[in-house]
Automatic annotation (TrEMBL):
SUPFAM superfamilies: Obg GTP-binding protein N-terminal domain (SSF82051), P-loop containing nucleoside triphosphate hydrolases (SSF52540). Residues 158-229 form the OBG-type G domain. This is GTPase ObgE. Keywords: Cytoplasm, GTP-binding, Hydrolase, Magnesium, Nucleotide-binding. GO terms for biological process: ribosome biogenesis. Residues 1-157 form the Obg domain. InterPro entries: G_OBG (IPR031167), GTP-bd (IPR006073), GTP-bd_Obg/CgtA (IPR014100), GTP1-OBG_CS (IPR006074), GTP1_OBG_dom (IPR006169), GTP1_OBG_dom_sf (IPR036726), OBG_GTPase (IPR045086), P-loop_NTPase (IPR027417). Residues 73-83 have a biased composition (Basic and acidic residues). GO terms for molecular function: GTP binding; GTPase activity; magnesium ion binding. The keyword Hydrolase applies.
Length: 229
């Protein structure tokens, strides 16, 4: 079994601010309040895809944000809502959402899961009018979008695992059998994470090179051996 992990920070969009404005038209010198509400911040979703390599991009980009909502406009116009963001992960990924300790198992492609909610837009001064206050000069700030820490863990069962000492040709064998593009070089520890390839209907995994004492945690032993069970 291969275990692939990634850790990212996710932030939903902030809500837009409400607007303070007043109607100004010819022949209407004392128009009432017309400041619109701010738009809602974008949500962040997770959705499964049948691609085991999707987690790689979250090692390079560890902070994901959705768009903020636009501020309210005059003439009672609500600001545009922020665009949602959807994170694609391989089917079979376990998603842990901190600090809530919520755990999701992504097992189907169709259903997106919301993991961070966008902030609500602030009210414009149009919303604060009353019988005793015809010209309110107050508006609300948009609320902040939710921020969460996400851990992805993908457990993938391979049919064959290539194990051995560093620099003995495991990656070259994987490339020859599967037309994978595992990195190959004439020095130890070229492979620092498992590489995968398919041969006919079988999944083959190239496990990073092990050294003597790996089972006792020597070097990166535990980190590499966690992929084998």
């Amino acid at each position: 079994m291969l275990i692939d992990t990634a850790h990212i920070t996710v932030k939903a969009g902030n809500g837009g601010d409400g607007r303070v404005s007043f109607r100004r038209e010819k022949f209407i010198p004392k128009g009432g309040p017309d400041g619109g509400n701010g738009g809602k911040g974008g949500n962040v979703y997770i959705q499964g895809r049948n691609d085991i390599r999707l987690l790689k991009k979250y090692r390079a980009k560890t902070k994901i944000t959705a768009d903020d909502g636009d501020n309210g406009q005059e003439n009672k116009k609500t600001g545009k809502n922020g665009r949602d963001t959807t994170l694609l992960v391989p089917l079979g990924t376990r998603v842990t959402i901190h600090p809530y300790s919520i755990v999701l198992d992504i097992i189907e492609e169709e259903k997106p899961y919301r993991i961070a909610s966008g902030g609500k837009g602030g009210k414009g001064n149009w919303e604060f009018r009353s019988a005793t206050n015809q010209t309110p000069r107050e508006a609300e700030k948009g609320r902040l979008g939710e921020t969460v820490q996400i851990t992805f863990e993908l457990r993938l069962i391979a049919d064959v695992g290539l194990m051995g000492l560093p620099n003995v040709g495991k990656s070259s064998l994987l490339n020859a059998l599967t037309q994978a593009h595992a990195r190959v070089a004439d020095y130890h520890f070229t492979t620092l994470e498992p590489n995968l390839g398919t041969f006919q209907k079988y999944i083959i995994a190239d496990i990073p090179g092990l050294i003597e004492g790996a089972s006792n945690g020597k070097g990166l032993g535990f980190q590499f051996l966690k992929h084998i069970s």
